Each structure stands twice: as structure tokens, then as C-alpha cells.
Amino acid sequence: MIWAGVLVASAACYVLKLAGLSLPSRWLQDVRIQRTVPLLPVALLAALVAIQTFSLGQHLVLDVRAAAIGVAVIAVLLRAPFLVVIVAAAATAALLRLI
Amino acid sequence: MADAISSLDRRKVIRDALGIAIASGAYALSFGAISSTSGLSLLQTMCLSLLMFTGASQFALVGIVGSGGSIWAGVAAASLLGTRNALYGVRLSTLLKVTGLRRLAAAQLVIDESTAMAIARDKESESRFAFWATGLLLFAFWNLGTFIGALATNALTDPKVFGLDAAPPAAYLALLAPRLRAREPLAVAMAAGVVALICLPFVPAGIPLLIVAAFVALYGLFGKSR
């Protein structure tokens, strides 16, 4: 039974990925759609940042991850290199948990 | 070729992609471990990382099975969380312009990280390179991490240990930054974060992102055009 679930879910996830890539390009030619589509990943990734920072399961929480993302925001504003931003955020979370 | 990207840019993209891939590989250790302790065999665990290859969906499926839920509830949750990849795909289709077998291969690599790396670049040629480099490196490290984690199961498998749970949101934030310099995307991003957190306690995982996408669609299609 687990095997069936693993395979069905994997197939479903792949079909979803492929479906997005396979929209006929003429569907995307409308000016309003061309304006909207680039905003989609921006909004989804921003929402993910919020969810991964301020929630645990279905609960809103405020913990060391908020401080870690605060450090990441400062690093980004200071135009720190990408890897520095990630390491600074992870180190902040790890160090605060040690205290 | 006007479309070519310099070897310097290439190196920079690969360095960043490798950074994300290694962090994800470390995260995959905990996926492998959780999957094993949830009762999935090594082969089933590896199938998830090889075939499903989308982290949030994988964690949801094994989490539900591990807590005694039905495998089909896990399938539903994993699919729901996978819907965002379809939306990423819509955006990426205009950047990647892939057809045939290349599209079938590209599809498997459509995930949060490869999308974030692609939209962080200003030139389309760089976006395409960033997508493939991130997708392929991450696929390798994610599966390697899963394998080791599934065998080790206990030591070093809590993502909290090295603050790894803070790494993905920090990475997405850094990759979004170039897009957030204009006022409209910045406003959309902030609103998206707020909307996601407001609905999160009330709806199953995966739904908040669909609500956010619906808001973006309404705003883009019916909002005042500038």
C-alpha cells in the first residue's frame, strides 16, 4: 500500500511540474497575463519565506528563525554575497539555540 | 552569440547553486532519517527523492505516514504542496523555452530553489543556466543526503542542529532581493507573506500558497494596469 502511495504521489507531483511548463505559449501572450506571471514566483517564494520563518505545522510561532531572517535581511541590504546571507542566517539560528 | 554568458558569470552561478545544493543535501539527511523511522524502506525513501523530488511534499507524505495517518492522506498532502511547482512552471516556461525530451527533463527540476535561482538573474541566458545548474546539483545532493540519512537514521538528522531550518527562507529572500527593488513586486511580496500567515492556521498545508496565487492572479488580471 505504501508503494502505491509513493508512486501515485510521485506521478502526481511530476505531472504538476510538467503541466506548468507545458502551457501553450499563446495562452501567455495577453498583456495582463505577461504582467502577472512574473509576479507569481515572487509572491509564492515570499509567502514561503513567511511560512518557513513564522510557523510550525499549522501554528504561528516566533522563535530564533525570526532573528535569523532578520540577520538575512540586514545582510541582503548590505549587499552581502548570497552564500554569506545563508550562512549568517543559519549561524544565527544555531547560536541562539545554544544559548 | 549575444545570448552567451561569460565564464565568470557561469562560475558565480555554479558557486551559488553548489551552496544551495549542499545546504539541501544536509536537509535531505533529515528527510532520509524521518522517512526510515516512519516505516518506509530504503528503496521507497529513495524513490521519493528520485521521482517526487520536491522537499515539502516528501516531508508531508512521510510525516503523515509516520504519525499513523493513511498513506492516501499523505498522497493528497504531497500533491497539494506540489501544486506550486505547476505555477513555477508557468513562469519558467517563458524563460526556459524547452520542448520535447528537454522539457520532460526540465520538469523534474522545477522546484523552489531552481525557480528562485532562475528569477534572481537579469538575463534570460543566465536564468536558464541558473535553472539547470541549480536543478541538477540539487538533485544530486538531495539524493545523496537522502541515502545517507536513511542509512544513519539518528545522528545529525535534526535540521535544527546547524540552523539549517533557517537556510531555505534566507536563500529565497536573498534570491528575491533583485526583484524587490521595484515598488510593485515589493508590495506584492509583502502582501503575499501576510496573506499566507493569516490563512495558515485555518487551512491544510499547501492551501495558503494557492490562496496567495489566486490573489496575485486577481490583482494582475483585474487590477489597475499601469
Q: Can you describe this structure?
A:
The complex is a heterodimer of chains A (99) and B (226). Chain A has helices at residues 2-21, 31-36, 39-54, 64-77, 82-98; strands at residues 55-56, 59-60. With 99 residues, chain A is mainly alpha-helical. With 226 residues, chain B is mostly helical. The two termini of chain B are 34 Å apart. The mean pLDDT of chain B is 92. The longest helix of chain B has 31 residues, at 7-37. Chain B has helices at 7-37, 42-52, 55-66, 71-96, 100-108, 112-120, 124-152, 167-176, 183-199, 207-222. The interface between A and B is large, with 73 and 94 residues.
H-E order of chain A: HHHEEHH
Helicity of chain A, as a percent range: over 70%
Mean pLDDT of chain A: 95
Cα gyration radius of chain A (Å): 19 Å
Largest sheet of chain B: none
Tally of DSSP β-strands of chain B: 0
Q: Nearest-angstrom radius of gyration of chain B?
A: 18 Å
- One letter per element, helices H and strands E, the order of chain B comes to HHHHHHHHHH
Please identify the oligomeric state: heterodimer
Structural class of chain A: mainly alpha
Estimated share of beta-strand residues of chain A? under 5%
If interface size is counted as residues with C-beta under 8 Å from the partner's C-beta, which chains form the largest one?
A: A-B, 73 and 94 residues
Biggest β-sheet: strands ordered side by side in the sheet of chain A: 1-2
Give the overall shape of chain B, derived from the CA principal axes. globular
Q: Tally the helices of chain A.
A: 5
Mean pLDDT, all residues of chain B: 92
Strand portion of chain B: under 5%
